[in-house]
Amino acid sequence: MRQIAAILGLAVLACTAPALAQSDWPTRTITIEVGYSAGGPTDVLARLLAEDIGNTLGRAVVVDNKVGANAVIATEYVEHAEPDGYTILMNTISHNVNPLLQPGRVKYDPIKNFTPISQVAVLPQIIVVAGNSPYNTLGDLVKKAQSAPGVVTYGSAGVGGSAHLASALLEDRARIKLNHIPFKGNGPALIEVMSGRVDFMFYPMVGIVDYVGSGKVRVLAVTTAKRHPDYPTVPTTAELGYPGFEDYAQPIGFIGPANLPAAIVEKFDKAVAAALQKPALQARLKGLGADVIHRGPVAYRAWLAQDRGRWEQLIRTANIKAE
User: Fold this and answer.
1) Chain centre to alpha carbon of residue 41
2) Hey, how many other C-beta atoms are within 10 angstroms of the C-beta on 204?
3) Which part of the chain is CATH 3.40.190.150?
4) Residues 235 and 227: beta-carbon distance below 8 Å
5) Residue 188, helix vs strand vs coil
6) Which percentage of the chain shows pLDDT scores above 70?
7) Distance of CA 59 to the CA centre of its chain
8) In a 10 Å sphere around its CB, with 0-12 CB exposed, 13-18 middle and 19+ buried, how is residue 152 labelled?
9) Which pTM was predicted?
10) Which residues, at least 6 apart from 230, have a Cβ–Cβ distance to it below 8 Å?
11) 127-171-312 Cα angle (round to 5)
12) The domain at 125-248 falls in which architecture?
């Protein structure tokens, strides 16, 4: 009887251990994986939020940059991580787009193979050129591309990134052919634009205001539905004859591996929501150009599914190809 009782006791402990681990979570450092280079928009937001989330959870939250393949490397790393809440991905537009553009290489399902946790913001984009660029307006750039197909270059954080897709949408709407130059992050791409070695790029409204103020870059257009208060004299893409760009703003959120326990998801999302409700953090995010939009795990899962359908339609109608 003692042996039976011991066996039953061990069975009970085995069943309750995972639940106890979830209730005690976190007990060590949490890592947020970012698929882009340090200093880029996604990295800046991740580091800003990590500190506040860590303070709420009572554990350090660090950012790790696993750069390459338009965030596929970081995404697949998180996909195969243990679903214990210590490895989280800050996802962007590429999460949904990579499997659509590269079905032969990218095998993950953006919904089924992950656990959506929180959406935190969207990043409207601006079209930027170097401060001494010969293109003073978007019309100038389009005219050049019309007269010399494939000559005008644009930078991006990689195939399938927001800058790539926005430029492909511009190609479709303006009926022009551009030359795509992908980089390992928006930061490196912006450096090449500022140098004049790359003609232009669509850049999220994060961490660029100082470059605009110093004259290192010039803003040709914003992709918001109305003129942006940070750039009141800059026309929208819709004003310039290219409507619809506001529907394709860059989403920013947190996702984990599949089967991440609901208790951990809820705890992390609550920490995110608490951070986003703080006026000081809201001001910092807005100052960086981010539009704060919080969605919890259920709403974010539904939104990601809708977003995937939107991108699938655009990729098909604009005939966007992986390069």
Assistant:
1) 8
2) 30
3) 28-122+250-317
4) yes
5) helix
6) 93
7) 24
8) buried
9) 0.79
10) 205, 209, 289
11) 100
12) 3-Layer(aba) Sandwich (3.40)
The Cα 187–Cα 37 span in angstroms is 7
Cα(6)–Cα(73) distance, rounded to whole angstroms? Answer: 46
pLDDT score for 26? 98
User: With the C-alpha atoms ordered 122, 124, 129, 130, is the resulting torsion angle positive or negative?
Assistant: negative
Give the H or E element holding residue 20.
helix 2-24
pLDDT digits (tens, 9 = 90+) for 53-88: 999 999 999 999 999 888 999 999 999 999 999 999
Q: Which amino acid is at 163?
A: A
H or E stretch covering 291? strand 291-295
Name every residue whose Cβ is closer than 8 Å to that of residue 276 and which is 6 or more positions away in sequence: 120, 282, 285, 292, 294
**Architecture (CATH level 2) of domain 28-122+250-317:** 3-Layer(aba) Sandwich (3.40)
pLDDT given for residue 290 in this prediction? 85
Residue 16: pLDDT over 60: no
Residue ranges of alpha helices (H) inside 110-237 are 138-147, 162-174, 186-195, 209-213
